[in-house]
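User: Predict the complex with zinc ion.
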Amino acid sequence: MVTTLANFIVRHPRLFVLAGAGLSTASGIPDYRDERGEWKHSKPMDYREFAARHEARQRYWARSCIGWPRFQRAQPNAAHRALARLEALGRVAVTVTQNVDGLERRAGSRRVIQLHGSLDEVACLACGAVLAREAMQRGLLAANPELPLLSAGPRPDGDADLRAYGTAGMRVPSCRDCGGILKPQVVFFGESVPAARVVACFDALREADAVLVLGSSLMVYSGFRFVREAARIGLPIAAVNLGATRADSLFDLKLQQDCGAALDAALDELGLAAADIA
Ligand SMILES: [Zn+2]
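Assistant: Here is the predicted structure with zinc ion placed in the model:
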């Protein structure tokens, strides 16, 4: 019977870590969902709407432009650092993250698959040309100099609340090569995760000996399917999440705790265990 996270980690050294928004909340990037798994804000951008409607792109980029500086300033927190340390100790086979902030790598994790992509890059929907989000930001600010004057709270995808601001006059830069629509390199709602990326995750899952869910309600299918598959093939599953999840009945261990606190406590316990062995 596994009763502590440290115990779970000791017993299963090849962990498949599945990380969600709860990993980054302590970095100032708020969670999508509350403790019951319900949406906290309005739903994020839908792919079809983004691709089809200029107004939707105006709204998206206006919010994104305002939210970006704060998003970009976000720093890895205790949970990211603990996860990187666990990987360095040889305990984490792979981290599959639903987050698009890149904070896992910045904290030092190397075996990371960003399931939903990264906000660092923008791509043309027509020709595939890629540019840095920072370059997009310069273009957005040059075309809309009044935007930085607005301030608002951030969303997990770098969005910000623009309730009081009309975006009808928003000028959205298009692809320099072909004039096509530019979209952040993240998976929007209504869009599929690229197949090769999903295959890589399932391959990693089959190599792992257990799954550790960190800060995800698993309400989104793209992450939930890995936990469901882990349960199907008999892998033990532990989860650290402050609220309910879609897979609570599948867990061997569940900690209703902050990810950083739980991982730090586990590392402390592991440190003591190592000292005892020495
Ligand atoms: Zn293009």
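The first strand starts at residue 15 and ends at 19.
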